Amino acid sequence: MNWDVVIPLLVFLLFIFAIGFWASRHIAAKSNFLQEYFLGSRELGGLVLAMTMIATYGSASSFVGGPGAAYSEGLGWVLLSMSQVATGYFVLMILGKKFAIKARQYKAITLVDYLKGRYNSKAVVLLSAVSIIIFLFSAMTAQWVGGARLIESLTGLSYTSALFIFAFAVIIYVIIGGFRAVAVTDALQGIVMFVGTLIILVGTIIAGGGMGNIMSDLANENPNLVSPFGHDGSLTPLYVSSFWILVGVGVVGLPQVAVRAMSYKDAKGMHRALIIGTIVVAFMMFGMHLVGVMARPILPGIEVADSVMPTITMEVLPAWLAGVVLAAPMAAIMSTVDSLLLLVSSTVVKDVYLNYVNPKATRKKVKTMSFAVTALLGIAVFALALSPPDLLIWLNLFAFGGLESAFIWPVVLGLYWAKGNKYGAMASIIAGVASYSIIHNIWPEPFGMHTVTVPVLLSFLSYVTASLLTARKAASLS
Amino acid sequence: MAAHEKKDWRFKIAHREAWIGVGLVLFNFLWWFGFAYGLGSKPVSDYQYIWGMPAWFFYSCIIGSLIMIVLVIVVVKAFFKEVPFEEGQEEEKS
Fold first, then answer.
1. Which of the residues B11, B15, B32, B79 would you substitute to probe the A interface, choosing the one with the greatest number of A C-beta atoms within 10 Å?
2. Which GO terms describe its cellular component (chain A) (predicted)?
3. Shortest distance, CA A277 to any CA of chain B (angstroms)
4. Tens digit of pLDDT for each residue in A382-391?
5. Are B61 and A79 inside 8 Å of each other by CB?
6. Residue B46, pLDDT above cutoff 80
7. Do B73 and A101 touch (CB under 8 A)?
8. d(CA A414, CA A115)
9. Reduced to 3 states, what is the DSSP secondary structure of residue B50?
10. A24-42 residue pLDDT tens
11. For chain A, which terminus, N or C, has the lower number of CB atoms within 10 Å?
12. Is A215 part of the contact surface with chain B (CB cutoff 8 Å)?
């Protein structure tokens, strides 16, 4: 085992646990358990808010899959990844103050609570809860597989023991600390990701003999690598642009991101988060993907895309520094997984159990349920991840695209279009999820765009059409 | 409820800020797209290089991000207003 690399990782894990314990004291002290456990009592400040949004969103695909793809595609993939800069400001500006105010009016703790308050419909609540549970469960599994693979490749442990360590670490601090632990560890993880990116970026440029040198090596190997069109010219402008929907503006519809837009304390925090978030996300996405490209002339011939990032780090940095940098993808994966785990748990406990199974549950009962459901979900994902499906990015993007198609319009038009109603929301969720699943399986990437484009459009049309068609009926009822 | 909602002064601010977000993202996209494919569609042998990077990449990805960061800072400082989120505080201003 490579102790120089393992020790920084262990120190990092210890910090994470310490935060979990610190946060669990808050849970004991606050009177409103649900609000504290699932939303941190809406007390996030600017830095933590910015970091938790980015860290939740930036996952295995930004730190492992993404640089791997950039390694094989060249600068065209860095260009594609820059569509994510928009997430730094767009989500908070669009949901913004109105979402924060409305969420407080509805006393919403989850995204589904918000939809319940806005549309007042059991069908909408159940539909959205079910889509969250199904899609985020698969996203979570993909991330756990990524986390375990990473530990496996860094430490030389077997996949199963690596998965066990990863699962144990995450489950413990999420169960005891809830949202506050998740958000504060996300902030720590975000800082680790930022610093890690900086170190590896500088290290790689030096190892390659300077930027000019690296670029001419790339152009000599294959001129397409320095063009925006990918290594074989297949990245068309239309295809790359369609990623603005998937990883740019569409992120507004992701429940794990949207729920953070109701967790901040005041407008000042939100303003700071906008600035910090844009800077951090732009730098991280740019740095990590560029490192993937620059790794090519330094280490040609890496076969497994997911191993590009760990391999280049160990190559260009001294071992102890490599440990610090490799804590970054670890942090990215953990910070995504912890949020997903808590979100799925809140959907089960708050949206399904408290709404429909046992609305009169006592505080103690709710508390036990929350801990138990979180633990059970964690164990279930662990079991699934033991015999993992192969394509990490595929599963992950499937979940992202499906959720975005389902929720973007019920959330955004629900906020800003007074005529939108529950029929529109239902039609939109059904059309989005159904068309995404169908197109994904039988007609991937229609018209040369990413699969998500058409479902998002269909779900928009369904929302508007259904809302307008039923407008008279809804008006006469009320 | 509906009448109350229309009158809530905070929503006017929120709506304006959301439109600013839409404007920013459109500008961001146009800049990104214009430089990447405007300069990058030439044959690679004709590329110009800035700081060792192809010019399309430098302008689209690096300058583009820096401009967005500056724009976000300016917009937030100059146009975004602080409003209270809790109920019952809204009569204080307006």
1. B32
2. plasma membrane
3. 9
4. 888 887 655 4
5. yes
6. yes
7. no
8. 8
9. strand
10. 888 888 888 888 888 888 8
11. C
12. yes
Q: Which residues, other chains included, contact A116 with Cβ-Cβ below 8 Å and sequence gap of 6+?
A: A106, A108, A124, A125, A351, A355
Domains of chain A, start order: 3-394 (1.20.1730.10)
Nearest to B11 among A82, A98, A210 (CB): A98
Q: What is the pLDDT of residue A340?
A: 86
- Please report, to the nearest 10 degrees, the dihedral formed by the alpha carbons of residues A328, A332, A335, A341 taken in order: -140
Mind listing the pLDDT tens digit for each residue in A171-222?
Answer: 888 888 888 888 888 888 888 889 989 999 999 999 999 999 999 999 999 9
Cβ distance B72 to A275 less than 8 Å, yes or no, reads: yes
The residue type found at A469 is L
Residue type, A378: G
Tokens 């529109």 map to which residue?
A: A424
Q: Which residues contact A35 (CB under 8 A, 6 or more apart)?
A: A41, A42, A109
Assembly ipTM: 0.88
- Residue A370's identity, in one-letter code, is S
| Both tokens assigned to A145 | 């597989």
Nearest Cα of chain A lies from the Cα of B92 at a distance, in angstroms, of: 16
Q: Which two tokens stand for residue A425?
A: 């929301």
Q: Which residues pair with B53 in a beta bridge?
A: B50
For residue A228, the distance in angstroms to the closest alpha carbon of chain B comes to 6
